[in-house]
Amino acid sequence: MFRIRFHGRGGEGIKTASRILGSSFFFEGFQVQDAPKYGAERRGAPVSAYVRADHKQIYERGEIHKPDLIIIADETLLHVTRNTVLEGIYENTVIFIISAMSNSELEEIINCGKTIIKIAPAVLPENYHRFLSSITASATARFTGIIQIDSLIRGVEEELKSAKNDLILENTAIAKKIFNDMTSYSGIVTETDGTPVITEPQLIDLPLHNSSIATPAIRTGSTSVKNQTGSWRTSRPVILQEKCSRCMLCNVYCPDSAITKNEEGFPVIDYNHCKGCLICREVCPSGAITQEDEKTSRSKTV
Amino acid sequence: MSEGLIKNIKDLSVEHNLAPGTSMCAGCGALETVKLFCDILGKNTVFVNAAGCMTLLAIYPFTPFSGSWLYTAMASASAGAQGIRDALDILIKKGRLSASEDLKVIVLTGDGSAYGMGLSATSAAIDRDLDFYYLCYDNEGYGNTGHQDSAATPYGARTATSASGAGFTGRKKDLFSIWAAHKPAYLATIIAAEPLDLAHKVEKAMTIKGPKMFITLAPCPTGWHYEPHQTVSIGKLAVKTGIWPLKEFKDGTVTHTKVLKERVPVEEYLKLQGRFEHLFVPEKNPALINRIQTTVDQYWKDV
Ligand SMILES: Cc1ncc(C[n+]2csc(CCOP(=O)(O)OP(=O)(O)O)c2C)c(N)n1
Ligand code: SF4
Ligand code: SF4
Ligand code: SF4
Ligand SMILES: [Mg+2]
Fold it and tell me: Which residues of A fall within a CB distance of 8 Å from B27?
């Protein structure tokens, strides 16, 4: 059985990628499961999806904890949710990433001695983000060595059938190109045994706890501050104090309570939590908020 | 207009009772309303949340609320609110909770719940004059499950279940009138893009005992297909086009809190959203746009 896990951010097309791959396997006569991790598909938030494919009935269910292939569509995830992305690496695992980092940098940060296949954004079209589903699904199809180009293209068309014709054509074109470019990696991802190993559960008797400690009770409010949603940003709002009239409209409209007021009455953005929606920039009547590319600003401040 | 403390934008709190770090999408219009709501209602609250996007606000052990929170099935949030209200009343009566520690009970549900599955439990709660708040954030679809259409989806909008052709062919249910027919103590439509109107209404509701019902239009970048920064502009246009009338119901009468001398054509609102893109490309569809405009014009003619 192939066990394949995709990681990306909400809105990048990871779910679609898993569906394209799932359909492509299906057209090759496989039994398939493909599913996104349910409940967290927020735009910009870390998300994952998985595909299982086997020649016989699949008895495994749920998330994949021992993947044969991990696809990382967004390298920033390695900084934020590294443990989740790299969970369950074992002898057979191959890693595929779209990244501008050098091979040695990647090896250092991933640090697990596994084969890492990389596509640099520089070799992709400038607007490659629009085609991430087709790019990652196509590379993956090639890595299996089993999916033929026709099944892949059928998968892309099937998944995008409600999209406009031009968009479908652009997607199939890039899928074909990637499939070609990745020829040397054909068959690099291999199957492992799909027979379920069922061990008898070991039941242990536990004494009943006092219900005041056994029930999950919230005793402290506002704990969500521990979630650093600032990592979701692709663009960052920046306040220019010299233009700011201290009207605080940005504070009123920010959905995420991510703007505070300093002692002089100026707004201050909480970059640990700001998700980068840029509503503040849109509502500022003085044009005092500009937008910067997140990657550039981060490298300036680090 | 307001008898409350909030007279202008400067009176709105710059410190917020709803903490950051939630897993809502960037630019979520529903979260924007919940934030304003919490600022005005204060910290002594318990939210009763039916399944939907906002359920992900509180994922144990993380919560943005300073008060408590209860998760219920989609159809039963108002019944949950009754249980909590009764429990609080009993505790106060027995002297186990002081009156100053009393909590405001707020039902928080999406439109899927409020306009559909949860309608019956809510109807019964209003019948019983339950002293609670209801905040329905209306993103006009089943957002959390991928934006399928709900009873609140407007005519013409594309959703995951009306993805082709002319979009959704049904019509948006008039929940305001359905709730008004129950004669709740207070009922209002609001929108985060008009924070003062919202604040005045919530302040007013706080002086009233009984069911206090709110429906907020909740622009949703993910389900409506627009860029997150447009949430407030789209919200303001919903009001300026007359698509989202701001009104309240009290003592048997409906009052519009914002009546426009001139309304912006609905086209301006529709064309910003991907869910209405088929009304404009590959070519403009004046018949469909007119149909939407006529419905809005008819509404305001009757006001
Ligand atoms: C009885 C029941 N049916 C279906 C579901 C699955 N479900 C979870 S959230 C959701 C969508 C709810 O839509 P809405 O109330 O509009 O809230 P939104 O997701 O838009 O925030 C559905 C259908 C459920 N939880 N319970
Ligand atoms: S971009 Fe502005 S409005 Fe959006 S979360 Fe950040 S600070 Fe708030
Ligand atoms: S909206 Fe603009 S002018 Fe007003 S406080 Fe914010 S940054 Fe300053
Ligand atoms: S899908 Fe819409 S309503 Fe749900 S969290 Fe995202 S923006 Fe908010
Ligand atoms: Mg909804």
Answer: 255, 275, 277-279
Q: Which of B245, B246, B240 is nearest to B267 (CA)?
A: B240
Confirm whether B247 is domain-assigned: yes
Domain containing B14 equals 9-301
- CA–centroid distance, A255 to ligand 5, in Å, is 17
Predicted complex ipTM exceeds 0.90:
yes
Q: Please state, in angstroms and rounded to a whole number, the distance separating the CA atoms of residues A268 and A291.
A: 15
Is residue B235 domain-resident? yes
Tens digits of residue pLDDT in B178-231: 999 999 999 999 999 999 999 999 999 999 999 999 999 999 999 999 999 999
In chain B, the number of structural domains is 1
What letter would DSSP give residue B153?
Answer: P
Give per-residue pLDDT as tens, A1-53.
999 999 998 888 999 999 999 999 999 999 999 998 866 567 778 899 999 99
Please count the residue pairs, one from chain A and one from chain B, whose beta carbons lie less than 8 angstroms apart: 144
- Express each pLDDT in A149-201 by its tens digit: 999 999 999 999 988 899 999 999 999 999 999 999 999 999 998 777 778 88
Give the CATH number for residue B233: 3.40.50.970
Q: Which residues of A touch B36 (CB under 8 A)?
A: 252
**d(Cα B91, Cα B95) in Å, to the nearest integer?**
6
Cα B51 to averaged position of ligand 1 atoms, centre (Å): 5
> Residue B160 burial (CB < 10 Å; 0-12/13-18/19+)?
middle
